Predict the 3D structure of the following.
Amino acid sequence: YTCDLCGYKFKTMSNLKYHARIHTVERPYKCETCEATFKIISHLRNHVIIHTGEKPYTCDLCGYKFKTMSNLKYHARIHTVERPYKCETCEATFKIISHLRNHVIIHTGEKP
């Protein structure tokens, strides 16, 4: 199943229908605290946490807590040997993309 608007492909029609929401102006999910609106309910759920201060996602290795699963996954890299970001000039590798960006400055001479 392919999105007519952007060409993105999906295995199921239900996934395509879910995806189609990003192409509409409709924002049916509203935060009851600040009235922010969202196209997708999971985005509202992630947003609501900013009002509660809740950090429901905990790193099993160090106990650090996060508001979102994506932040926990990003953090998890510090506990692995994975270094997916590579400098094209000297081939130094980094776990976090911002560290690569800071490193590249030594080759370009640019100031941050």
